[in-house]
Each structure stands twice: as C-alpha cells, then as structure tokens.
Design goal:
CATH topology of the largest domain: pyruvate-formate lyase- activating enzyme
CATH superfamily of the largest domain: tm_1862 like domain
Number of strands: 19
Number of helices: 17
CATH class of the largest domain: Alpha Beta
Structural class: alpha/beta
Shape: globular
Strand order of the largest sheet: 9-10-8-7-6-5-4-1-13
Strand content: 15-25%
Helix content: 25-40%
Length: about 450
C-alpha cells in the first residue's frame, strides 16, 4: 500500500462535479445560456423527480483554520435579515423563469454556519421558499449545525418546518488539534445537541470528522471515533483534510506545513478510522462516507440510487439543483452556474433584479458521457463497459497502470474499482477526465489524493 500511496498521492480533484470548476469553459458561458439550459432541464424533470435547493448561509463568528468553504466572518447579527431577504428574492427570480411551480424534493442549508442565523430568520426563509413551490412526496430537508450554537429552538423550529436530517461538524476531539484549527468544541456539547435532535424527532443525524489535521495522530482518531460511537450517529463523514491555502487564503495558514501528517502517515489515520467504524457497524458508502444499514444513504447504495453533487453524496437524485446565496453553485445536469463570491456584490445584484451568476459551464455531449462514468465510479465503484466505448478515447496509459496495480479490474460487463483501489478513486476518475489529459500543470489547483 505504501508503494501505491507514493505513486498516486498527487494533486487531483474531488469530483463533486465534472468538469471540475477550474476547467469550466467560462468564455463560452453566459447568463442567457444558463437560463436556457436550466429551463430545458427543469421542463424535463420537475414533475418526474422534483428539484433540489442548496442555500448557502456564509456567515461565521470565527475562522476555523481547516475550513475551505466560502464564508464571511462577522459577529454582527444585524446582517441576517438583509441576507435572508436577498436569498428569498433570488428564489423569486428563478421561479419567474419557470412555467410551472417547482416541486421541491430536497433542501439543504449549508455554510458557513447556518445556525449563525436566528431561528426566526431561518423560519422566514423556509416559509417563503415553500410558498412558491410544491413538495415532492419523497422530500427531505437537512441542515448543517455547529454544536456550539445550535439551540433547542433551532432544532424545534426547523423540525416543525419539515427538517428531519442534521449534520454536526465535529472534526476531532483532541484539544491540541482543536486549538490548531481554532475550533474548540467539547464532547459534552456535541452529546447534548445530538441527543436533543434525536429527542425532537430527527431521523438521520450525521457527524463530520476529518483526518489529516495538524498534530493529529492515530490515538486522536481512535479516541474521536470511540467517543462518536457513544452517540451513534446514523451517518459519519470521514473527510480527508484538504490543504489548499493558495486558494482559500490566510485561513488555512494557522499552522505550519510540517505540522500536517503526510502520505502513509495520513493514510494510516484513515485506515485505522475506517477499521473502527466498520467494526462498530458502519458501512462504507462512496468516498469518505459511512452509514448504518438502517440509514437511507446506505439503502440508496444498495438499490443503486446513490447520487453525488456539489452537496456531496445524497440518497435523492434530482436533475436540477439550484444554489441560492453568495458563491452557491447550481447544477441543471446540462450546465453549471456559480454565484458571485462576496455578500455585498451578491445582494446588490439580486436587489437590482439580476441573477447573481458570474461564471459557469455548458456541457458538451462528451462532458455528459464522462460525467456519467465518473458518477458511476464515485457512487457504485463500477461502470458498464458499454458506457466507455473505446478505452483509447481515455487516458489509456494511466488505465493500464491502474489495471497493473490491481486498482481496476473487469467483472463481467463492468469496469470495477477493487478493494485495493478504493483509496485511489480520485486517481481513477482522472483517467476519464478529458481536461486533465491535455492540461499542462503549471500551478497547483487541487489537494493531494491521499
């Protein structure tokens, strides 16, 4: 394994999209093209499967130095009302583009810190969103909660509005690690809010853990996972820390490079964590995700409906996902669009009646073909050989190496990711990435794969 890690531990995308954002053809993109692509996809899919909404709520009271999200740091809560009003206005602008009511299948509140906002502001947001839409019979609403500021009122208010899933950011319970990433969060607080959510009626509770953090060692990972098991969340995300300070600025420079576990040491953290999680009844679901057999995410893996988009893995696939809020990304499956990245510019555009989109990508037929292959591999660890056609159309030299290293194999009519190959799923996807095949790497754009 160490030999493979040395060979394949290179900067590669995480493939929450294809093409990945650095390879979007922004020169050929325009708002009118985005609107046309969205309307076409909406008409095809709304009545059949509904749409998803991702709402980006970017405010945080303090900077976590491990975070790679787009956020706005402030302790001023007077920003809440105007921002929520802008998100509602953006939704109204989208609704005006459609010739029928959107049917909402999924809402996810992400951040930033959604629980930065007062419960009454979140209530206003959801009521206004739903007033313009219908609900799919199989809908699910979820939000990301910070254990330190998620209150009983937050949980009750959102549950009364239909929210049944919540994800709490935990990261690691080691105080040394918490100090390094500026996220002091005692186990007792996580325990309190997890148990409260369960009592109120949340049916799927997730904890987000991270490996590869500064100063983190095997003992830290073992301790964190054992404490997590005491609370028995339904899902666990066990993410690799993505060190990308050249993209995200000073926030990730709160520690030195030498403080980070690397290569085989970092991978050992994951392998130990994975072993413990599986021993405790969690099943691996896609890259970095685990779930109990009773959870819908695992069930979607079993029945082949698991999907992956900018929100990560989801049990509810929709062709259209509209992102609302500063920096949010929308996906109509035939195109991507991203909103402007500052709160001020976002609110100015929306309040002037303009969609706040500033860049995007319109998919070619080749993009769609490769996107489906990558989705299959990410969600099912296999893809039908008929989807591939001629392997010479892809990075054949890299594919040969993946077969030789027992990372890929053939199983009947399918190309399959082996058990040995699962840690290298991002590298496998690179072999089908047309843009990386021809690109001359002049600057580092992605985090390391391991």
């Amino acid at each position: 394994m160490n030999t493979l890690i040395k060979k394949y531990n290179v900067p590669v995308p995480r493939y929450t999209s294809y093409p990945t954002v650095p390879h979007w053809n922004t020169e050929e993109f325009g708002k009118e093209k985005w609107i046309t692509a969205l309307q076409k996809s909406f008409k095809e899919s709304n009545q059949k499967e509904g749409i998803s909404l991702y709402i980006h709520l970017p405010f945080c009271e303090s900077m976590c130095t491990f975070c790679a999200c787009h956020k706005h740091i402030t302790k001023r809560h007077d920003v809440e009302e105007d921002y929520i009003s802008s998100v509602i206005k953006e939704w109204e602008l989208y609704c005006e583009l459609f010739d029928e009511k959107p049917l909402i299948k999924e809402i996810h509140l992400g951040g930033g810190t959604p629980t930065f906002f007062a419960p009454k502001q979140l209530q206003r947001l959801i009521i206004c969103l739903l007033s313009k839409a219908g609900l799919h019979e199989d809908y699910e609403f979820s939000f990301e909660g910070h254990p330190n500021n998620t209150t009983e009122e937050h949980l009750k208010t959102l549950n009364n509005l239909g929210f049944t899933r919540v994800s709490f950011g935990v990261q690691d319970y080691s105080l040394k690690v918490q100090k390094a990433i500026n996220r002091i969060q005692p186990f007792e607080k996580v325990k309190e809010v997890t148990e409260l959510a369960r009592e109120i009626g949340y049916t799927s509770i997730s904890h987000d853990l991270v490996f590869g953090l500064p100063f983190q060692n095997i003992d830290d990972v073992v301790y964190t996972i054992r404490k997590t098991k005491e609370l028995a969340p339904d899902r666990i995300s066990f993410y690799s820390y993505a060190h990308v300070p050249w993209i995200k600025g000073v926030g990730q420079r709160g520690f030195e490079e030498k403080d980070l576990p690397k290569n085989g040491t970092k991978r050992a953290l994951y392998e130990e964590g994975k072993w413990l999680l599986e021993k405790q009844g969690y099943k691996e679901v896609g890259m970095d995700h685990f779930a109990l057999e009773t959870d819908e995410l695992y069930k979607s893996l079993e029945d082949g409906s698991l999907h992956r988009n900018f929100m990560g893995y989801t049990a509810r696939k929709t062709q259209v996902m509209i992102g609302l809020g500063m920096s949010a990304i929308s996906d109509s499956f035939n195109a991507f669009a991203q909103n402007v990245k500052t709160v001020k510019e976002y609110q100015t555009l929306v309040n002037n009646g303009q969609l706040p989109v500033f860049r995007g990508h319109i998919h070619s037929e080749e993009d769609l073909k490769r996107r489906q292959i990558i989705l299959d591999l990410m969600c099912q660890s296999r893809t039908n050989l008929q989807n591939l056609g001629n392997l010479n159309d892809f990075n054949y030299i890299m594919l040969e190496a993946l077969f030789e290293d027992n990372i890929l194999s053939i199983d009947g009519d399918d190309l399959v990711l082996t058990q040995t190959g699962k840690p290298f799923i991002r590298n496998v996807c690179v072999a089908f990435d047309e843009y990386l095949k021809t690109e001359q790497q002049t600057e580092r754009k992605f985090s390391y794969s391991i």
